Amino acid sequence: MTFFIRTFGCQMNVSDSEKMHQLLEERGWTAVGEAEADLIVVNSCAVRSRPQEKVFSYAGRFAGRKKIIIAGCVAQAEKENIFARKVKVNYVVGTHQFHRIGEIADEVRSGGRPGAATAFSRRWPELVPGSRCRSSRVTGFISVMEGCDNFCSYCIVPFTRGREKYRPMDAILCEAEALAGAGYPEIVLLGQNVNHWRDPRGASFAELLRRLAAIAPLGWIRFITSYPGYHEPELVEVMAACRGIARHVHFPAQSGSTRVLKRMNRAYSRSRYLGIIGSFRRAMPEMKFSSDFIVGFPGESEHDFQLTLSLLERVEYESIFSFVYSPRPHTRAAAWEPDVPAALAKERLLALQELQERIQLANNRRRIGETVEVLVTGRHPKKSAEMIGRSESQRVVNFASRTPVGTFTRVRITGAGPHSLRGEEVRTDEGK
Ligand code: SAH
Ligand code: SF4
Ligand code: F3S
């Protein structure tokens, strides 16, 4: 029997899909393309209404022709309600039950009745996908914690991922060593509040990074997503001391207005946030940041929005993800008057994105003439002599090269657009 997993949402879903892939293969299932598969597993995202609806329109394409399992965050948030939808679904598997995907898939195959496995569990399901089941040969994802206790007033994630739980340090180090041994040049630690990770026996997140940085021959170590409210100064010290930790942090601000941050139930102010950014930059002047922003949150005034724009100018982010506020079930803000009209919210989103594009273009142009370290991530889809890579700050770099995918090289920047750089490879023998 054959399967195909379609993943929506964040990297944690990508990581969970890799584990489901492994579990299904262990059970005798064969991974094939979407068209040939008997079973489609949809690993879903519920964070905004649009990604959630995409899950159902995707599943609807296979109606009556294939078996469908909905896994992930929509499965967790909607549970049995999914069966009331038009799309025929064979099973619903929540975020803490994906380790049962093998037995559930077998049951679905043998014509068992539809059901939903959506209980939360305090246990960490220790599963390490083999290289064959991973989505990338360049980036190895390592989940280190799951869940969220913050309950930001707009966010469904605490209801889809449950309370915070942490994976023990030994297991994380062991997976990192295996990835280094298999030649992965980059690892990304995953968690909804990754900087709140701690070992059940006490070690801090900074200590974990210090231990990971000592594993050779690992290249870049990254981690997502950090919650500014959980920032600890020890992280800055460790990053400054360990060159293997990429000097780029995704540090979602959501808004530049303290008043809005309070209503969002974010545990920091604008000035505290800027203070943390400043402390990173004092220790590492080359430090880069990216962020997420929500516009049109209930109660966001024109002044609040201007404060968000000015935060962009103050921090000069490498990149941002920005969204119009989307009311979500279970959340506190869903009950609040949506007082920013949709057209105004859209206008604000475009203004935010336009400003960010100007900032990125100016920053990228300043890099012309610099030589940067680049990790080769793929071939150019159209130009056969060109490779695509990423800089330490996740900026896409295009350059003519024959350096293999997964290798570090150095590129002198010769051109810049808002979203990517172009350059000439200066040395292929002494990457990292
Ligand atoms: N744990 C991360 C965020 C995970 S959700 C953090 O705390 O930063 C990813 C992003 O989706 C969020 O950063 C936020 O910008 C956006 N988001 C979450 N809920 C949203 C909603 N209801 N409407 C619009 N954007 C939302
Ligand atoms: Fe959602 Fe806030 Fe938790 Fe992030 S910290 S997952 S935005 S509730
Ligand atoms: Fe989406 Fe769930 Fe990730 S809601 S963003 S897939 S934690």
Gist?
This protein has twelve helices and 19 strands.
Question: Strands, helices and their partners?
Answer:
Blueprint: E1 2-7, H1 11-26, E2 30-31, E3 39-44, H2 49-60, E4 67-72, H3 73-78, E5 91-93, H4 101-109, E6 115-117, E7 139-143, E8 145-146, H5 157-161, E9 165-166, H6 169-181, E10 186-190, H7 205-213, E11 220-224, H8 233-241, E12 248-250, H9 258-263, H10 270-283, E13 288-295, H11 302-315, E14 319-324, H12 342-366, E15 371-379, E16 386-391, E17 396-400, E18 408-416, E19 420-427
Parallel strand pairs: 1-2, 1-3, 3-4, 4-5, 5-6, 7-10, 10-11, 12-13, 13-14, 17-19
Antiparallel strand pairs: 8-9, 15-16, 15-18, 16-17, 18-19
Bound molecules: S-adenosyl-L-homocysteine (SAH), iron/sulfur cluster and FE3-S4 cluster.
Iron/sulfur cluster (SF4) is lined by residues 148, 150-152, 155, 157-158, 192-193, 227.
Structure characterization notes:
The chain folds into 3 domains: 2-117, Methylthiotransferase, N-terminal domain (Rossmann fold); 134-365, pyruvate-formate lyase- activating enzyme (Alpha-Beta Horseshoe), CATH 3.80.30.20; 371-430, OB fold (Dihydrolipoamide Acetyltransferase, E2P) (Beta Barrel), CATH 2.40.50. The protein is of the alpha/beta class and 432 residues long. The chain starts with a strand and ends in a 5-residue tail after the last strand. The protein has helices at residues 11-26, 49-60, 73-78, 101-109, 157-161, 169-181, 205-213, 233-241, 258-263, 270-283, 302-315, 342-366; strands spanning 2-7, 30-31, 39-44, 67-72, 91-93, 115-117, 139-143, 145-146, 165-166, 186-190, 220-224, 248-250, 288-295, 319-324, 371-379, 386-391, 396-400, 408-416, 420-427. Helix 11 (302-315) packs parallel to helix 12 (342-366). The relative contact order is 0.08. The strands form 5 sheets. The chain has a 6-stranded parallel beta sheet with strand order 2-1-3-4-5-6, with helices on both faces. It contains 12 helices and 19 strands. It is 32% helix and 23% strand. The site of FE3-S4 cluster has 12 residues, from helix 1 and helix 5.
